[in-house]
Design goal:
Elements lengths: L1 H22 L7 H7 L3 E9 L2 E12 L4 E10 L2 E12 L4 E8 L6 E8 L4 E9 L5 E12 L2 E8 L7 E7 L1
Antiparallel strand pairs: 1-2, 1-10, 2-3, 3-4, 4-5, 5-6, 6-7, 7-8, 8-9, 9-10
């Protein structure tokens, strides 16, 4: 008897599932995603940190139905190459931009969220990630889009008044 009830319940779930899936429209990119779309393409970068200057490249592509900006960074670094991957989107429910960053210097992702100031053309994100000592730390990034071919990115840790590093982007 229990097997018959389970089978009937399972059959009902499978019969109704396609209707529920069809009833829910997939999300579509909104005007906020246009900001991310402007970042698509190949970029040459210069990273400045600790009195050093490192060069590299970033490739950005809108992905997953135009909802996410997928980024791949490669950069020369003292002691070897540095690679990173990012996924950025606009979360309509939170009304905030969201980013997830992973790289070759650790196994913990950095997750940040923030807002875009249209007048200043500045995207400010805050969040948590591993600190230089491996312990959780507060991070803040400030991205300035001076025009469609140039950007700057500053990363702050804790309550620092000066950025830990700065990256300048020039579109190829």
């Amino acid at each position: 008897m229990h097997a018959l009830v389970r089978f009937g319940t399972l059959a009902l779930v499978f019969a109704l599932a396609p209707q529920a899936v069809r009833a829910q429209e997939p999300p579509k990119p909104g005007p906020e995603h246009d900001l991310l779309k402007k970042m698509e393409g190949s970029w040459d970068i210069v990273m400045k940190a600790g009195g050093m200057e490192m060069k590299g490249t970033v490739t950005n592509k809108m992905d997953l139905g135009g909802l996410w900006l997928a980024s791949a960074m490669k950069c020369e670094f003292p002691g070897g190459a540095f690679e990173g991957r990012g996924m950025d989107t606009y979360d309509a429910a939170k009304k905030k931009y969201v980013t997830v960053w992973i790289d070759s210097m650790g196994t913990q992702p950095m997750i940040m969220e923030g807002t875009y100031d249209k007048e200043k053309k500045v995207l400010t994100m805050v969040g948590d990630g591993p600190g230089m000592d491996g312990k959780p730390a507060k991070w803040k990034s400030v991205s300035k889009m001076t025009d469609d071919k140039n950007m700057t990115f500053e990363m702050y840790v804790g309550d620092a008044k000066e950025p830990m590093f700065t990256v300048t982007y020039k579109k190829k």
